[in-house]
Predict the 3D structure of the following.
Amino acid sequence: MIRVFARKTKWTPTDELAFYDEPPLFDLPDLPVRVNCVFTRDKERAIKLSKAWSRRFKDVLCGGPAFDDAGGEYIPGRFLTKAVTITSRGCYKNCPWCYVPRREGKIRELTIRDGWVVQDNNLLACSRKHIEKVFEMLSMQPIPASFPGGLDLDLVEPWNIDLLRELQKQHKLATIWVAFDTEQSLDKLSRAKEMFGGFNIGRRFAYVLIGYKDDTLDRAKSRLERVYEGERGFLPFAMLHDQNTDYEWKKLQTKWCRPAAYRKPSTSGNESIINSKYSRASCG
Ligand code: SF4
């Protein structure tokens, strides 16, 4: 299958059948073409690309999260690089800013495929059996695992921490991600500080959603500072709302998604494991 992407990211594949533009001049096999669009702001470009590919290929479809696709079984390497795995879709919550419940419905467990970047919307909403199998798979991967899909602080239980500790013991844990989306989440973060205390601060991140409807730059900055200055046990990582493309917001996000740019020298830890290009599947 030929895949065409409306935007290139760290996680989109780069094999010989992955494209980011209109069809190339050279010959290609007559395969189905799937145009994939993740961000709603790229929809127009995705439609334009579909039209361009339709002029040369018969079977062209345009879809992806931005077009509210519910998503089926996850195939590593197809729309995301083989580093990424998605072992469940959907979510049991209905956070008003989130597309997941509307697009993917309630939580459903998928076949567990290899990968070390866990992009499930809400892994901890899955059954214990499923979660344990996911950790088993992660312990066998060549690269330490990260959880940019987010670990839901409402669901974290001591046995989840034990699983993370076990990964850490095997040197198979890179980063843990949680979310600070509302004022109430601040208390949750503070409570979680102790639970996650056994993990290096340079491995613990809290997504801070900014730039959604009615948010202001001052309020967003204050939330980011409250996570950082308040030493809640996680480093803030600004996530700009999908539909916000304003320059000032982008500037704020750029600073607050790079710990090297906001951490005070005396508190800097292991920066090398931090990757500012993480993209969140949702938040958890
Ligand atoms: S933001 Fe996270 S917890 Fe809330 S509905 Fe979306 S995936 Fe679920």
Notes: Residues 267-279 have pLDDT under 50 and may be disordered. The chain is about 30% helix and 15% strand. Helices lie at 43-54, 100-104, 128-139, 158-169, 183-195, 217-229, 247-256, 259-262. The first helix runs from residue 43 to 54.
